[in-house]
Write a structure and sequence with these properties.
heterodimer, A: 154 residues, 4 helices, 6 strands, B: 166 residues, alpha/beta, six-stranded parallel sheet, 40% helix, globular
Chain lengths: 154, 166
Amino acid sequence: MTTRPTRPKVLAISSGGGHWVQLLRLRPAFAGCEVVYATVREGYRGDVEGAEFRLIPDSNRWNKLALLRCAVAVFSLLLGERPDVIITTGAAPGYFAVRIGKWLGARVVWVDSVANAEELSLSGQKAGSFVDLWLTQWPHLAGKGGPQCFGSVL
Amino acid sequence: MILVTVGTDLPFDRMVRVIDAWAAETGRRDVFAQIGEGGWQPRHIPYAEFLSPPEFAAKFAAARVIISHAGMGTILTALHNGKPILVMPKKASLGEHRNEHQTATARRMSEIGGVNVAYDETELRQWLDRLDALQQPKTIGGSASEGLIQGLRGFIHRNAGAPHGR
């Protein structure tokens, strides 16, 4: 047997549009991992052809019922997949994933969207208090007591 | 072909109306607009509320110019594919988005990515009349910067319990 027992399981999760485009641009970071992608549109499956793909309902903070449905779906996804590491580029589904995932014992990463060039997103600000790795993509938003900046999706 | 897109979130009637009026006046027939759910329906250009990702990719590939809200998904896709892009920021004050980040996004991307910006309807109309003058995008590769990739990789492969992060 040459299988390595230490291949970490990564859940890469985001909502649609720019959040998903940014998540896809992080893919080389998942080399050597068992990766599961989760997002909100069936049509995105083809973007990660051959990889594990899970669908979750979308939500934003303006629709409470959809938010609840999304949180329940994410919780159930996490119980089923039990990832070692969770990485998200936002927004609401990703926030739920790192929040609940942290509670379930995963190591979690928040990559704030590159669209937030003047201040972190609201979810990103909240996530800062509990995530293991808190990232902004803008050097001028990084610093003491705030997120780190390693680079950007550009 | 000119592809107009308002993104996957809210409509952006203010932008679509200007482009529709311009197409009517100039007789441009090679414009296609994705207008969002419940968006104002243009009278002079073909449109769809949404496009499936494969449909969107096909339109994108065929387009010579992209005109878009200032959303990073479309901007990144345009830069990756080397398509000239003109963006107009959505404004939360007009109910077009949930916060005002698009104006800052547009300004930053015009500085670093060769993204053209119309900050309002007047500027959009001015750009439409001289699309050939659009700045070429700074083409980007298929993935994030090496620093971000390496940083994430380092985090993922660090043993559980090791100090990390902050």
